[in-house]
Amino acid sequence: MLEFEIRHKDLMGRIGKLRTPHGSIETPTIMPVINPNLMSIGAKDMKMYGAEMLITNAYIIYRKADLREAAVKNGIHSLLRCEMPIMTDSGSYQLYEYKDVEVGNSEILNFQQSIGSDVCVPLDIPTPPYAKIERARDDLEVTMRRMQEARRIVRNNPLAGVVQGSTFVDLRAESAKRVAALGFDVYAIGGVVPLLASYTFDKLVDIIVASKRNLPQNAPVHLFGAGHPMIFPLAVALGCDLFDSAAYALYAKGKRYITSDGTRKVEDLQYLPCACPVCSSYSVKELKEDVDLLAAHNLWVTFEEMRIVKQSIVERNLWELCERRCRAYPALLNGLKQMAKYSALIERYDPGTKHPFFYLGESSAYRPEVLRYSNRLDRFTLSGNVLITTNLKETDITEEEQFDHVFFVKPPFGPYPAELSESYPVGQAEIPAEVDNEARTVALQNVLKLLELNKNRNVKFVFRYDRCWEDYPLVEEIKRYAEVGRED
Ligand code: GUN
Ligand code: ZN
Q1: Average pLDDT over residues 182-209
Q2: Strand, helix or coil at 270?
Q3: For position 229, which CATH number holds?
Q4: How far is the CA of 335 from the centre of ligand 1 (A)?
Q5: Distance, CA 280 to ligand 2 centroid (Å)?
Q6: Residue 324 neighbours by CB distance under 10 Å
Q7: What positions carry a catalytic annotation?
Q8: Helix, strand, or coil here: 56?
Q9: Which atom of ligand 1 is nearest to the CA of 191?
Q10: Residue 355 counted as domain residue
C-alpha cells in the first residue's frame, strides 16, 4: 500500500500526502501527460508549472523499439529525464480509441514494472458511456480478470485498480467494490473521457459518487482523462485526488486557450485575460502563432486552478468555489445540481465547522450544512409558548417576554433559537437581502419539521411571517400546528 495521509478535508475533497517510490507529493494534483515521442514541453520543465507527478503511456514506449530498449535499460525516469514520480498508463485508452492494441495485460504490466513505474496500470477496458448493459457487463468481467491478474503479477511497484461500468451506476458500484476487495494502492475511475468531451457533467457526478462511496476512503482516487481545470472544483469536492491530462497540449494544438471556466479560441482573443508568465510577456499575436506558448499558458492556468481548489479546502469553502465556477456554464451547473442531490452522502464526510456560510444561489439551499442542520432539529427540547418569526430584528418583538422560546427563521436553514444568533452555521450564515424560492422553501420545510417533531409535546407555537413569505403553500400547512399571523 502506498502511504496516503489526509491533512485537510472539505466536502468529500481532501488535501493528502502520497508517498511514492520517488518521493512524496501533495494531492489533489494533476499529472501532465508526457508523450515520449514529442516532448515539446519536457518532463523536467513540468516542475516549474507546479507539477509534482507525471503520467506517460507505457504502451507507446513499448511498441517503439528504441524507446523500449532505452526504458528497460535505464528506467522510465531516465527516458523522460526527470526524477519526479511517474505513473504509467497501459494502453487501454489506445485500445478504446484505435482498437488495435497488440499487447497483453501481463506483458504490459511486466514492462511497467521493469521500467520502474511509480504507479502501474493494468489493461482495463474503457466501455463508452451509454453502451448496452450486456457489453458493459462483459467488458467489466474482462477488466476484473485483468485486475486480479495484475494483483498477482505486480509485486514491487504501486498498482492502480481501475473502475469501469460505463454509465450504469450499479455496475460502477459493483466494479468499485470488487477492485476495493482486491486492494490497490491507487483507485482510478476510467471510461469518462467521452462524458468530459461532451460536457455531460451530471452523469460524471453520478459515476464519481457511485465509485467513490464503494472505494476505501483512505486511498487516493484518480479520475482518468480529466485535465480541464473547469472540472477540478467539482471532481475534487466529490473526492478525486489525482487527475491527468493531455488537455493542455491537445487544446493548444487546436488553438484553444484554457481558462478556469472554459475554453476560448485563441483567434477570438483581443486581450489575454491572464497574468501567467506567458500572458504577461507575450502579445496575443505571438500566442496565436505559437502552439508551445499556448500549451505553456494552458499549463499555468491548470495548476493555478488546482492551487485555488486546495486553498478552498483549507478554508473549507469548496462548495462556494464550485458554485462560483459552475455558474460559468450551464453544463457545469447541471453537475453542481447533481452534486447537491448527494448532499446527504457528502454531509457524512464533511467537517462539522467551517468559515461562515455564504448563500450564493439556489444550489446553496441543498448544501450539506443545511441538511445537517435539518437532521438536528430534533435536538431542541421545547415546552410552553414558542414564537417562530421571520422577522430577524429581535428588538422589534415587543411581546417577546410572553414566550418561553423565540426562534428566528433564516433561509435556507429555517428556525433557529435566538441564543444561536452568533453561532455557526445558521447564526453566522450570510444571505442576500433577496433570497430565492429554494432558500425560503427549505426554510419553511424546516419550520414544519420542527413543529411536527414537537406536536406531541405540550408546546404552543405561534408563527409570524412577513410579506415576502406570503405565497408559499407551506405556510398553509404550518397552520395545522401553529397559530399563524402576518406581521409587517
Ligand atoms: N485514460 C483515459 N481513460 C482511461 C481509462 O478508462 N483507462 C485507462 N487505463 N486509461 C485511460
Ligand atoms: Zn496565461
Answers
A1: 97
A2: coil
A3: 3.20.20.105
A4: 21
A5: 7
A6: 17
A7: 89
A8: strand
A9: 6
A10: no
